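User: These chains co-purify. Model them together.
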Amino acid sequence: MSSATAFAPGTHVLLVGTKRGLFILTSRDRVEWSCQEQALSGRRIFNAVFDQRVGRRLYAAENGDFFGNFIRYSDDFGQTWQEPERGIQFQEESGLALANIWTIVPGRADDTETVYCGVDPASLWVSHDRGVTWEQNAALANHPTREHWNPGAGGLCLHTIAPDYSNSNRMWIGISSVGCLRTDDGGETWTFANKNTRASYLPDPYPEYGQCIHRFVQHPTQPETLYQQNHCGIYKSVNAGADWIDIQRDLPSEFGFPIVLDSHHPNTVFVIVEGEERNNIGDQFTIYRTRDGGEQWEALRNGLPSGKEVRLGVLRHGMCADEQDPCGVYVGTNTGQLFASADGGDSWKMIADFLPSIYSVTATVIQ
Amino acid sequence: METASATTVTVLLPQALATRVGDQLRAQVAGATVREVIVALDERCPGLRFNLCLETGELRPFVNVFVNGTHVRYLQWLETPLPPGAVVHILPSVAGG
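Assistant: Joint model of the two components:
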Protein backbone atom coordinates (compact mmCIF):
# COMPACT_ATOMS: atom_id res chain seq x y z
CA MET A 1 0.00 0.00 0.00
CA SER A 2 1.42 3.39 -0.90
CA SER A 3 1.87 5.96 1.82
CA ALA A 4 -0.68 8.19 0.10
CA THR A 5 -3.27 5.45 0.51
CA ALA A 6 -2.16 4.25 3.92
CA PHE A 7 -2.14 7.78 5.31
CA ALA A 8 -5.16 9.20 3.53
CA PRO A 9 -7.04 12.00 5.32
CA GLY A 10 -9.15 10.64 8.13
CA THR A 11 -6.72 7.86 8.92
CA HIS A 12 -6.01 7.32 12.59
CA VAL A 13 -2.30 7.03 13.25
CA LEU A 14 -0.40 5.79 16.28
CA LEU A 15 3.30 6.50 16.63
CA VAL A 16 4.81 3.91 18.93
CA GLY A 17 8.32 4.63 20.13
CA THR A 18 10.13 1.57 21.39
CA LYS A 19 13.47 0.36 22.63
CA ARG A 20 14.21 -0.79 19.10
CA GLY A 21 12.65 1.52 16.61
CA LEU A 22 9.51 3.45 15.72
CA PHE A 23 6.35 1.63 14.71
CA ILE A 24 3.58 3.41 12.83
CA LEU A 25 0.12 1.88 13.08
CA THR A 26 -2.92 3.03 11.16
CA SER A 27 -6.65 2.43 11.25
CA ARG A 28 -9.69 3.71 9.42
CA ASP A 29 -12.11 2.88 12.23
CA ARG A 30 -10.01 2.63 15.44
CA VAL A 31 -11.01 -1.04 15.61
CA GLU A 32 -8.73 -2.77 13.13
CA TRP A 33 -5.13 -1.58 13.20
CA SER A 34 -2.19 -2.46 11.02
CA CYS A 35 1.50 -1.64 11.17
CA GLN A 36 2.46 0.47 8.13
CA GLU A 37 6.07 1.26 8.88
CA GLN A 38 8.89 0.26 11.10
CA ALA A 39 11.36 3.10 11.01
CA LEU A 40 14.62 4.07 12.69
CA SER A 41 15.21 0.42 13.33
CA GLY A 42 17.33 -0.46 16.30
CA ARG A 43 17.28 3.00 17.84
CA ARG A 44 15.68 3.84 21.15
CA ILE A 45 12.77 6.14 20.33
CA PHE A 46 11.69 7.92 23.48
CA ASN A 47 9.03 10.00 21.79
CA ALA A 48 7.53 10.70 18.37
CA VAL A 49 4.86 13.13 17.31
CA PHE A 50 3.03 14.24 14.19
CA ASP A 51 2.84 17.98 13.63
CA GLN A 52 0.17 18.96 11.12
CA ARG A 53 0.14 22.70 11.73
CA VAL A 54 2.10 23.11 8.51
CA GLY A 55 2.26 20.12 6.22
CA ARG A 56 2.73 16.75 7.88
CA ARG A 57 6.00 16.55 9.72
CA LEU A 58 6.85 13.62 11.95
CA TYR A 59 9.43 14.25 14.67
CA ALA A 60 11.24 11.50 16.54
CA ALA A 61 13.54 11.57 19.55
CA GLU A 62 16.19 9.03 18.65
CA ASN A 63 18.61 7.85 21.30
CA GLY A 64 21.35 5.61 19.99
CA ASP A 65 23.27 3.08 22.00
CA PHE A 66 26.59 3.98 20.45
CA PHE A 67 26.69 6.98 18.18
CA GLY A 68 24.68 9.70 19.86
CA ASN A 69 21.19 11.13 20.17
CA PHE A 70 19.34 13.02 17.48
CA ILE A 71 16.07 14.64 16.64
CA ARG A 72 14.93 13.32 13.29
CA TYR A 73 12.08 14.53 11.16
CA SER A 74 10.25 13.04 8.24
CA ASP A 75 7.83 14.58 5.77
CA ASP A 76 6.86 11.28 4.15
CA PHE A 77 5.43 9.29 7.05
CA GLY A 78 8.74 7.85 8.16
CA GLN A 79 10.10 6.58 4.86
CA THR A 80 12.99 9.06 4.81
CA TRP A 81 14.40 11.14 7.64
CA GLN A 82 16.30 14.36 8.00
CA GLU A 83 18.53 15.66 10.73
CA PRO A 84 18.51 19.27 11.93
CA GLU A 85 21.12 21.59 10.47
CA ARG A 86 21.91 22.65 14.01
CA GLY A 87 20.72 19.96 16.35
CA ILE A 88 20.71 19.55 20.08
CA GLN A 89 24.28 19.75 21.25
CA PHE A 90 25.57 21.48 24.35
CA GLN A 91 28.37 23.99 24.13
CA GLU A 92 31.70 22.36 24.95
CA GLU A 93 32.39 24.90 27.71
CA SER A 94 29.17 23.92 29.49
CA GLY A 95 30.73 20.62 30.50
CA LEU A 96 27.42 18.94 29.65
CA ALA A 97 26.81 16.06 27.27
CA LEU A 98 23.46 15.04 25.85
CA ALA A 99 22.33 11.85 27.56
CA ASN A 100 18.84 11.35 26.10
CA ILE A 101 16.21 13.25 24.16
CA TRP A 102 12.94 12.79 26.03
CA THR A 103 10.15 14.72 24.45
CA ILE A 104 9.24 16.76 21.39
CA VAL A 105 6.24 19.08 21.62
CA PRO A 106 4.83 21.21 18.81
CA GLY A 107 4.25 24.82 19.83
CA ARG A 108 0.98 26.66 19.97
CA ALA A 109 -1.50 26.41 17.13
CA ASP A 110 -0.84 29.98 16.03
CA ASP A 111 2.94 29.65 16.28
CA THR A 112 3.37 27.09 13.59
CA GLU A 113 7.15 27.24 13.18
CA THR A 114 7.92 26.61 16.86
CA VAL A 115 8.73 23.22 18.33
CA TYR A 116 10.00 22.42 21.83
CA CYS A 117 12.22 19.63 23.04
CA GLY A 118 13.18 18.40 26.50
CA VAL A 119 16.32 16.41 27.19
CA ASP A 120 18.60 14.95 29.83
CA PRO A 121 20.56 16.72 31.32
CA ALA A 122 17.55 18.86 32.09
CA SER A 123 17.27 21.54 29.49
CA LEU A 124 14.67 23.02 27.21
CA TRP A 125 15.41 23.49 23.52
CA VAL A 126 13.41 25.57 21.08
CA SER A 127 13.22 25.59 17.32
CA HIS A 128 11.55 28.45 15.48
CA ASP A 129 11.96 26.88 12.04
CA ARG A 130 10.14 23.55 12.36
CA GLY A 131 13.06 21.66 13.80
CA VAL A 132 15.82 22.74 11.44
CA THR A 133 17.82 24.65 14.05
CA TRP A 134 17.61 24.46 17.84
CA GLU A 135 18.62 26.74 20.69
CA GLN A 136 18.83 26.05 24.38
CA ASN A 137 16.73 28.10 26.78
CA ALA A 138 19.34 30.11 28.66
CA ALA A 139 17.33 30.96 31.75
CA LEU A 140 16.74 27.34 32.61
CA ALA A 141 20.34 26.44 31.83
CA ASN A 142 21.47 29.13 34.27
CA HIS A 143 18.77 28.64 36.88
CA PRO A 144 20.19 29.66 40.26
CA THR A 145 19.19 26.37 41.90
CA ARG A 146 20.52 24.15 39.14
CA GLU A 147 23.56 22.86 41.02
CA HIS A 148 21.16 21.38 43.59
CA TRP A 149 19.08 19.43 41.06
CA ASN A 150 19.24 15.66 41.32
CA PRO A 151 18.28 13.01 38.78
CA GLY A 152 15.62 10.37 39.13
CA ALA A 153 16.18 6.79 38.07
CA GLY A 154 15.71 7.81 34.44
CA GLY A 155 18.23 10.61 34.63
CA LEU A 156 17.89 14.36 35.08
CA CYS A 157 15.29 14.48 32.37
CA LEU A 158 13.03 17.25 31.18
CA HIS A 159 10.18 15.05 30.04
CA THR A 160 7.06 17.20 29.93
CA ILE A 161 6.43 20.53 28.21
CA ALA A 162 3.08 22.33 28.23
CA PRO A 163 2.97 25.61 26.28
CA ASP A 164 -0.10 27.44 27.58
CA TYR A 165 -2.57 27.78 24.71
CA SER A 166 -4.18 30.78 26.42
CA ASN A 167 -1.05 32.80 27.17
CA SER A 168 1.91 32.87 24.83
CA ASN A 169 4.24 33.91 27.64
CA ARG A 170 3.33 31.05 29.96
CA MET A 171 4.60 27.50 29.88
CA TRP A 172 5.13 24.65 32.30
CA ILE A 173 7.87 22.04 32.23
CA GLY A 174 8.46 18.91 34.29
CA ILE A 175 11.88 17.65 35.36
CA SER A 176 12.64 14.51 37.34
CA SER A 177 13.43 14.88 40.11
CA VAL A 178 13.22 18.62 40.29
CA GLY A 179 9.51 19.15 39.81
CA CYS A 180 7.29 21.51 37.89
CA LEU A 181 8.57 24.90 36.76
CA ARG A 182 6.61 27.69 35.14
CA THR A 183 7.58 30.70 33.11
CA ASP A 184 5.29 33.71 32.83
CA ASP A 185 7.59 35.75 30.64
CA GLY A 186 8.25 33.61 27.61
CA GLY A 187 11.13 31.68 29.11
CA GLU A 188 13.11 34.60 30.53
CA THR A 189 12.66 33.31 34.09
CA TRP A 190 11.44 30.08 35.65
CA THR A 191 9.79 29.61 39.04
CA PHE A 192 8.92 26.40 40.85
CA ALA A 193 5.31 25.25 40.94
CA ASN A 194 5.36 22.38 43.43
CA LYS A 195 3.48 23.58 46.48
CA ASN A 196 1.72 20.72 48.28
CA THR A 197 3.25 17.99 46.13
CA ARG A 198 5.20 15.41 48.13
CA ALA A 199 8.76 14.23 47.95
CA SER A 200 8.52 11.56 50.62
CA TYR A 201 12.08 10.41 49.91
CA LEU A 202 13.50 13.73 51.20
CA PRO A 203 13.88 14.94 54.80
CA ASP A 204 11.45 17.75 54.02
CA PRO A 205 8.59 16.02 52.20
CA TYR A 206 7.21 19.29 50.86
CA PRO A 207 10.23 21.15 49.51
CA GLU A 208 10.20 24.04 47.07
CA TYR A 209 11.75 21.72 44.50
CA GLY A 210 13.12 18.20 44.34
CA GLN A 211 9.83 16.46 43.56
CA CYS A 212 9.83 13.55 41.17
CA ILE A 213 7.13 14.74 38.82
CA HIS A 214 6.32 12.07 36.24
CA ARG A 215 3.89 13.70 33.83
CA PHE A 216 1.27 16.42 33.69
CA VAL A 217 -1.38 17.78 31.32
CA GLN A 218 -3.18 21.06 30.91
CA HIS A 219 -6.98 21.20 30.84
CA PRO A 220 -8.04 22.18 27.29
CA THR A 221 -10.71 24.72 28.26
CA GLN A 222 -9.71 25.82 31.77
CA PRO A 223 -6.10 26.94 31.28
CA GLU A 224 -5.43 27.32 35.01
CA THR A 225 -6.18 23.65 35.60
CA LEU A 226 -3.45 21.01 35.45
CA TYR A 227 -3.41 17.33 36.34
CA GLN A 228 -0.20 15.70 37.50
CA GLN A 229 1.03 12.16 38.09
CA ASN A 230 3.95 12.28 40.49
CA HIS A 231 6.19 9.63 41.99
CA CYS A 232 4.37 10.49 45.21
CA GLY A 233 0.76 11.09 44.32
CA ILE A 234 -1.77 12.30 41.80
CA TYR A 235 -2.57 16.00 41.91
CA LYS A 236 -4.71 18.72 40.42
CA SER A 237 -4.04 22.43 40.31
CA VAL A 238 -6.74 24.99 39.62
CA ASN A 239 -4.41 28.00 39.80
CA ALA A 240 -1.80 27.28 37.14
CA GLY A 241 0.42 25.33 39.50
CA ALA A 242 0.53 27.87 42.33
CA ASP A 243 -0.48 24.95 44.52
CA TRP A 244 -1.74 21.42 44.06
CA ILE A 245 -4.58 19.33 45.49
CA ASP A 246 -4.08 15.63 46.21
CA ILE A 247 -6.63 13.65 44.18
CA GLN A 248 -5.37 10.14 44.82
CA ARG A 249 -8.53 9.33 46.82
CA ASP A 250 -8.95 5.55 46.92
CA LEU A 251 -6.51 4.67 44.15
CA PRO A 252 -4.44 1.70 45.33
CA SER A 253 -1.08 3.41 44.84
CA GLU A 254 0.33 6.90 44.65
CA PHE A 255 2.90 5.82 42.06
CA GLY A 256 2.46 5.82 38.33
CA PHE A 257 3.90 7.40 35.25
CA PRO A 258 1.40 8.57 32.60
CA ILE A 259 -1.65 10.79 32.90
CA VAL A 260 -3.92 11.81 30.02
CA LEU A 261 -7.30 13.43 29.61
CA ASP A 262 -10.28 13.34 27.28
CA SER A 263 -10.19 16.63 25.37
CA HIS A 264 -13.97 16.66 24.81
CA HIS A 265 -14.74 15.82 28.44
CA PRO A 266 -11.69 17.20 30.22
CA ASN A 267 -12.83 16.27 33.70
CA THR A 268 -12.20 12.74 32.49
CA VAL A 269 -8.64 11.77 33.30
CA PHE A 270 -6.83 8.45 33.01
CA VAL A 271 -3.94 7.15 35.13
CA ILE A 272 -2.19 3.81 35.60
CA VAL A 273 -0.92 3.40 39.12
CA GLU A 274 1.62 0.71 39.89
CA GLY A 275 3.03 -1.10 42.89
CA GLU A 276 6.54 -1.22 44.26
CA GLU A 277 7.48 -3.69 41.54
CA ARG A 278 6.57 -1.07 38.93
CA ASN A 279 3.81 -3.07 37.33
CA ASN A 280 0.12 -3.80 37.85
CA ILE A 281 -1.03 -4.26 41.40
CA GLY A 282 -2.25 -7.80 41.89
CA ASP A 283 -3.00 -10.02 38.91
CA GLN A 284 -5.19 -7.63 36.91
CA PHE A 285 -3.82 -4.99 34.60
CA THR A 286 -5.98 -1.97 35.36
CA ILE A 287 -6.36 1.55 34.04
CA TYR A 288 -8.12 4.10 36.23
CA ARG A 289 -10.50 6.82 35.13
CA THR A 290 -12.11 9.76 36.83
CA ARG A 291 -15.01 11.61 35.21
CA ASP A 292 -15.26 14.36 37.75
CA GLY A 293 -11.81 15.84 37.88
CA GLY A 294 -10.46 13.52 40.50
CA GLU A 295 -13.30 13.28 43.02
CA GLN A 296 -13.87 9.60 42.28
CA TRP A 297 -11.90 6.97 40.41
CA GLU A 298 -13.14 3.83 38.70
CA ALA A 299 -11.15 0.79 37.66
CA LEU A 300 -11.23 -0.09 33.95
CA ARG A 301 -10.65 -3.77 33.30
CA ASN A 302 -12.94 -4.79 30.42
CA GLY A 303 -10.65 -6.41 27.87
CA LEU A 304 -7.45 -5.97 29.84
CA PRO A 305 -5.45 -9.07 30.78
CA SER A 306 -5.33 -10.77 34.14
CA GLY A 307 -3.52 -13.76 35.58
CA LYS A 308 -0.59 -14.62 37.74
CA GLU A 309 1.73 -14.11 34.79
CA VAL A 310 0.44 -10.60 34.04
CA ARG A 311 2.96 -8.02 35.19
CA LEU A 312 2.71 -4.99 32.95
CA GLY A 313 4.35 -1.62 33.41
CA VAL A 314 3.69 1.59 31.51
CA LEU A 315 6.22 4.36 31.17
CA ARG A 316 5.53 8.09 31.36
CA HIS A 317 4.89 8.59 27.64
CA GLY A 318 3.28 5.18 27.26
CA MET A 319 -0.34 6.33 27.31
CA CYS A 320 -2.17 8.86 25.16
CA ALA A 321 -5.67 9.86 24.12
CA ASP A 322 -6.79 10.96 20.70
CA GLU A 323 -9.06 13.95 20.15
CA GLN A 324 -12.15 12.07 19.02
CA ASP A 325 -15.46 11.84 20.87
CA PRO A 326 -15.70 9.29 22.36
CA CYS A 327 -11.98 9.48 22.84
CA GLY A 328 -9.60 6.73 21.97
CA VAL A 329 -7.11 5.82 24.66
CA TYR A 330 -3.91 3.94 23.87
CA VAL A 331 -1.57 2.22 26.29
CA GLY A 332 1.80 0.67 25.46
CA THR A 333 3.58 -1.53 27.96
CA ASN A 334 7.23 -2.02 28.72
CA THR A 335 6.82 -5.61 27.57
CA GLY A 336 5.55 -4.72 24.11
CA GLN A 337 1.76 -4.95 24.28
CA LEU A 338 -0.35 -2.14 22.87
CA PHE A 339 -3.91 -1.75 24.14
CA ALA A 340 -6.58 0.51 22.70
CA SER A 341 -10.01 1.69 23.72
CA ALA A 342 -12.28 3.39 21.19
CA ASP A 343 -14.99 4.18 23.74
CA GLY A 344 -13.29 6.34 26.31
CA GLY A 345 -11.92 3.45 28.32
CA ASP A 346 -15.10 1.38 28.72
CA SER A 347 -13.61 -1.52 26.79
CA TRP A 348 -10.14 -2.46 25.65
CA LYS A 349 -8.50 -4.56 23.01
CA MET A 350 -4.89 -5.53 22.47
CA ILE A 351 -4.01 -4.22 19.01
CA ALA A 352 -0.33 -5.24 18.91
CA ASP A 353 1.91 -7.64 20.75
CA PHE A 354 5.54 -8.71 20.66
CA LEU A 355 6.75 -5.16 20.10
CA PRO A 356 9.98 -4.12 21.76
CA SER A 357 9.56 -2.39 25.09
CA ILE A 358 7.26 0.57 24.44
CA TYR A 359 8.47 3.99 25.51
CA SER A 360 5.82 6.24 24.01
CA VAL A 361 2.52 6.34 22.16
CA THR A 362 0.99 9.35 20.42
CA ALA A 363 -2.20 9.49 18.38
CA THR A 364 -3.34 11.69 15.57
CA VAL A 365 -5.76 11.78 12.66
CA ILE A 366 -4.45 12.67 9.23
CA GLN A 367 -6.00 15.95 8.10
CA MET B 1 42.29 20.10 9.73
CA GLU B 2 45.79 19.31 8.58
CA THR B 3 48.86 20.38 10.52
CA ALA B 4 52.49 20.67 9.53
CA SER B 5 53.18 17.22 10.95
CA ALA B 6 50.01 15.63 9.64
CA THR B 7 50.31 12.31 7.99
CA THR B 8 47.86 10.39 5.89
CA VAL B 9 46.20 7.43 7.56
CA THR B 10 43.51 4.96 6.60
CA VAL B 11 40.28 5.11 8.59
CA LEU B 12 37.83 2.23 8.67
CA LEU B 13 34.32 3.08 9.84
CA PRO B 14 31.47 0.79 10.94
CA GLN B 15 28.40 0.01 8.88
CA ALA B 16 26.23 1.81 11.43
CA LEU B 17 27.71 5.10 10.20
CA ALA B 18 27.24 4.38 6.51
CA THR B 19 24.48 6.94 6.11
CA ARG B 20 26.59 9.64 7.70
CA VAL B 21 29.58 9.01 5.43
CA GLY B 22 27.72 8.31 2.22
CA ASP B 23 28.65 4.64 2.34
CA GLN B 24 32.35 5.51 2.19
CA LEU B 25 33.42 3.35 5.11
CA ARG B 26 37.10 3.49 4.17
CA ALA B 27 38.78 6.88 3.98
CA GLN B 28 42.23 8.35 3.55
CA VAL B 29 42.54 11.22 6.00
CA ALA B 30 45.36 13.52 7.08
CA GLY B 31 45.97 14.07 10.77
CA ALA B 32 48.75 13.91 13.31
CA THR B 33 46.55 12.55 16.10
CA VAL B 34 43.29 10.65 16.40
CA ARG B 35 41.54 13.88 17.38
CA GLU B 36 42.80 15.60 14.23
CA VAL B 37 41.60 12.72 12.13
CA ILE B 38 38.13 12.96 13.68
CA VAL B 39 38.06 16.70 12.99
CA ALA B 40 39.10 16.05 9.41
CA LEU B 41 36.42 13.41 9.03
CA ASP B 42 33.82 15.81 10.41
CA GLU B 43 34.79 18.40 7.84
CA ARG B 44 34.23 15.84 5.14
CA CYS B 45 31.07 14.40 6.71
CA PRO B 46 29.45 17.05 8.96
CA GLY B 47 28.06 15.58 12.15
CA LEU B 48 30.43 12.64 12.31
CA ARG B 49 32.37 14.10 15.22
CA PHE B 50 29.16 14.18 17.29
CA ASN B 51 28.62 10.52 16.45
CA LEU B 52 32.03 9.69 17.86
CA CYS B 53 32.57 12.22 20.65
CA LEU B 54 30.56 13.82 23.42
CA GLU B 55 30.15 17.58 23.38
CA THR B 56 32.82 17.71 26.07
CA GLY B 57 35.33 16.36 23.58
CA GLU B 58 35.82 12.87 24.97
CA LEU B 59 35.22 9.74 22.97
CA ARG B 60 31.70 8.36 23.48
CA PRO B 61 31.68 5.56 26.04
CA PHE B 62 30.76 2.79 23.59
CA VAL B 63 32.89 3.90 20.68
CA ASN B 64 36.21 2.13 20.34
CA VAL B 65 39.14 3.43 18.33
CA PHE B 66 42.11 1.26 17.49
CA VAL B 67 45.38 2.49 16.00
CA ASN B 68 47.18 -0.30 14.20
CA GLY B 69 45.21 -2.74 16.29
CA THR B 70 45.74 -1.18 19.70
CA HIS B 71 42.88 0.50 21.54
CA VAL B 72 43.58 4.16 22.17
CA ARG B 73 42.84 3.65 25.87
CA TYR B 74 46.23 1.92 26.01
CA LEU B 75 47.81 4.76 24.08
CA GLN B 76 46.94 8.42 24.56
CA TRP B 77 43.22 8.40 23.81
CA LEU B 78 42.39 11.08 21.28
CA GLU B 79 45.86 12.57 21.55
CA THR B 80 47.42 9.36 20.30
CA PRO B 81 49.99 10.28 17.63
CA LEU B 82 49.58 8.60 14.29
CA PRO B 83 52.54 7.12 12.44
CA PRO B 84 52.58 7.40 8.66
CA GLY B 85 50.30 4.86 7.05
CA ALA B 86 48.50 4.02 10.29
CA VAL B 87 45.21 2.18 10.14
CA VAL B 88 42.55 3.66 12.42
CA HIS B 89 39.64 1.33 13.14
CA ILE B 90 36.49 2.87 14.61
CA LEU B 91 34.03 0.35 15.99
CA PRO B 92 31.06 0.22 18.37
CA SER B 93 31.49 -1.77 21.56
CA VAL B 94 30.38 -5.34 21.60
CA ALA B 95 26.87 -5.48 23.01
CA GLY B 96 24.27 -8.10 23.65
CA GLY B 97 23.15 -10.42 26.35
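Residues 3-6 of chain A form the longest helix (4 residues).
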